[in-house]
Design brief:
This protein has 482 residues and is of the alpha/beta class. It has 12 helices and 17 strands. The radius of gyration is 22 Å and the shape is globular. The relative contact order is 0.19.
Amino acid sequence: MKKFIESASSIVLLATLVTPLVVAGQDVQPNFVFLLVDDLGWGDIGCYGSEFYETPHIDRLASEGMRFGNAYAACTVCSPSRAAILTGCYPARLKLTDWITGHQRPRAKLSVPNWKMKLDHERVLLPEALKEAGYATAFFGKWHLMPKGAADFDQHYPTSHGFDLNVGGCEWGQPAGPGRYFSPFGMPNLDDGKPGDFLTDKLTDAAVTFLDSTKRGQPFLLYFSYYTLHGPLMSPPELTAKYKQKAKRFENRKNELLDPKRAGMVESLDNSVGRVLAKLVELGIAGDTVVILTGDNGGNFEETSGGLRNFKGFSHEGAVREPCVVKWPGKTTANSKCDEVVIGTDFYPTLLEMAGLPQRPDQHQDGVSLVPLLDGASTELNRDAVYWHYPHYHRTNPYGAIREDDWKLIEFYETGELELYNLRSDPSEKSNLAQAEPDRAQRLLRKLRDWRVSVDAQMMTDNPTHDPDHADERIKDRRNKY
């Protein structure tokens, strides 16, 4: 199939490309709708505490499934988190540890390692594994897993990594077309529509068309990777006007971001989710479809973190703790909540087990299936810690982190400074206990360092051109705005 093809005809054609697979002892394999929201803050959704933003469809989805209270992105920025979901591996193992193309600080104290800016074709990604098992696979929205200008640039679209269809995915980390979030969009396989059309709505149109093209009994993966809520802040005029009026009379008890445009973006997202869910019901396949909604990293503002510390690009909870809702009809208990620690690497093995397919531990090396949590077989996973490794400069200085049970340790690579928090008693990370609990801090530090060795994490080195007076200066690059 050609890399770029007309989206409408390709969606219809896709329904004829894949032969359904029936697993022994399982009448119907579930369909999967995976909804990945860009820059989704912990406090952006009603069921996670928002009072200003209106998300009735997402809230209803949560009431019909399981809501996770300790779900994490694998990185504080987008590209590594997206890679972790698709591979089931920590970014450190992949050597893909920053957003593509990252910030460059040539005079900083430490030099950034020669990290990867694309996914290895040798790896079998989640869509490839499902496609091998007979699933139709379709991608909509933000990809951001390919390096612009590389010799093999055209070999790293979603259609090169297991998706039969790509609508909107390219090297962009945010809308960069002439109209940005408004028509014209300038995106692969997405028609520009008419003046005033909004990107989230148009991508939803394409996703709904794909659902209309599916055949009963033919399993599918619909991977909807929203560009929203990434900047620039733009929303349909009627929604912006609605929230301008709401902000005037709103009692902001939770210190939420009262930006009318961002609030309109959130409502547009929620309307999109509602349209997808409604289409599943209309087609009579809602009972056979698993729906997952989560984010790639925290929101881009402190006020979107729901009281957690910091936001996107930082080392603290506001950058990596994410809303996560899973509805698995007939398996998850409605309106249930799980506080077990989960992370983006876990979705790959989870979807395989849901589909009745063999696990692929040689591929999803760091993921753990969430099925025992979702079907009620267990309240705990067979894993004692999760990890982060960010050998780059962003809003934070380079760092590594570990969460074990209620405890989180952060190690900053420039200075060796440690921060230790008990997240049960101090979820906002206000009290650094590294000095008060030195034995615990050192034990977790050893564990973190052993993990880095086990995944062959790339480490930073002393920078021979370090200049303390200009260490924070970046190379001016118009692409470096994510």
